[in-house]
Specification:
Length: 284
């Protein structure tokens, strides 16, 4: 449980961090909160000669809100998301989701950028960002670019981010209406067996817009357009909710593991999603 020897770097700007990664190539890795990377280093599951710590880069931190436009620096911690009153006022679903991540000790150090950038299908924020139609801001040797969260995840631990790029921020338009993030897990601190992010808007007693995404039920987060479409124009009755649940069950692809067999995971997914839709509808 002791990492192999490595060189530690603590740059003070994004440009300096990008240069270090470009200079050292495959032997360098970026460190945000470290909850995924450090255990892998301790178990020697990854060979890293240069660790580039982003903690000292002030421009990667902070929450900026302009009307309903929200931009969050990649090094903003889960605790800071929870404590931000301004963020809770415009996008309370982030606080609801962050409170369900691991435990306080982890949330004080774990970052939004680290949670979304490494492509772990068990992380909570990727599905939420897809639900919100968020954009990821990347910077590398060739400059800056933006990738939609819905286009970012390719497979487990494989994303649209190149090895030379750093995720600098996440941005989205805060949705109007109701929201919910519901998570089923075996114990406090565990990854989800199934979790659902839902936002719903109503007009004239009917659903006018809906977005639904789920966590840890495939090798990527699953945003299902058909599930949201199944609710639009309806009164959000029991049959309408079941149509949305069935649409999601068509696209998830859970696997047997220590959290349970496929049949149990599909059952948990359906229960969690029903609860999330009902809660979001009650808040809309």
């Amino acid at each position: 449980m002791i990492p192999a020897p490595f060189e530690y770097h603590r740059p003070e700007s994004v440009e300096a961090a990008v240069k270090l990664i470009a200079d050292f190539g495959d032997s360098a890795r970026v460190l945000a909160g470290g909850h995924s990377l450090i255990p892998m280093m301790k178990m020697r599951m990854t060979d890293i000669a240069h660790l580039v710590d982003l903690q000292k880069i002030g421009t990667l931190k902070g929450i900026r809100i302009d009307g309903r436009s929200v931009t969050i620096g990649a090094m903003t911690t889960q605790h800071e998301l929870i404590e931000s009153t301004a963020l809770a006022n415009v996008a309370p679903i982030l606080r609801e989701a962050a409170l369900q991540i691991a435990d306080p000790q982890v949330r004080y150090v774990g970052t939004l950028g680290g949670n979304v950038a490494n492509g772990d299908p068990g992380n909570d924020m990727p599905a939420l960002m897809q639900c919100l139609d968020a954009s990821y801001h990347l910077q590398g040797p060739d400059g800056a670019r933006t990738v939609k969260a819905r286009d970012f995840y390719e497979a487990a631990y494989f994303t649209a981010r190149t090895d030379e790029e750093i995720l600098t921020a996440v941005s989205f338009e805060a949705p109007a209406g109701g929201h919910a993030y519901v998570k089923q897990k075996r114990k406090t601190g565990d990854y989800a067996t199934a979790a659902a992010a839902v936002v719903i808007a109503k007009s004239g007693g009917a659903c006018s817009a809906a977005s639904i995404a789920m966590t840890n039920l495939s090798d990527t987060p699953v945003w299902c357009e058909a599930a949201g479409d199944a609710l639009v124009g309806t009164a959000l009755g029991a049959a309408d909710v079941e149509n949305a649940v069935n649409a999601m069950l068509e696209v998830i692809n859970p696997q047997d593991d220590n959290k349970g067999p496929v049949a149990f995971k599909r059952h948990a997914a359906a229960v969690v999603l029903r609860r999330a839709i009902e809660r979001a509808a009650s808040r809309a």
